[in-house]
Amino acid sequence: MPLKDGDFVLIEYALRVKETGKLVDTTNEEEAKKEGIYDPRERYGPRLVIVGEGRLLPGLEKALKELEEGQEKTIEIPPEDAFGKRDPSKIKIMPRNTFIKNGIMPEPGKVVEINGQLAVIRSITGGRVVVDFNHPLAGRTIEAKLRVIKVLKTPDEKLLHLFLRRLPPTIKENDIKVIYNPEEKSAKILMDEKALSIQDLQVAKRIVVLEAAKYLKDEIKELEFTEHIKIKTEKEKKEKENTTKQHIQE
What we know:
- It contains 6 helices and 12 strands.
- The protein is an alpha+beta fold.
- The radius of gyration is 23 Å and the shape is globular.
């Protein structure tokens, strides 16, 4: 049965520019490293998508709705369903001094932020700078490989992945535990000692509360977060250090 709006799914994908074959986004860590687009701030591996949420390219989400768990598909996404068509009105000419006054040395190809918008400097002639506010991939056809890894069914699975996508990639799935009580429609999220090192943890919690209220309102009425810290003995600390050293040597 094809996916529908509101479904929680874990997907893998790779996006390439059709004309050049250049990889622009992927959920595969090794592929990202191999092609020079690896970002240590990114969480690689199967990615949570809530169908209809609008976090994917329109063309990619359209293709996703045609798939079932375990299926994969390769598609071409035209510019209008990818990063948009190029809009000539978004190309502006600005005085070079405007950049200098703001501490920016204009150079062709440089990405700059102007009034909260990202833009690419296309050329510099004398005191004039041609700035392109189109998305760098505007006008490009995208080739996408898409695979549905798993459809999440239970509230605890859904809540776990909602929380994980708001946390840094150093936090793994086994660092978080979700306990769900179907009778009370309550859930408790347990975090280990790694939670103490997470910046903006309270912000992440707040977002997850809002998302749970939006997407899981019929399944979860109460939500509790708990930092579950086990105080290790000196013996346990040494055992952990020895295990870490052994893994490094291997």
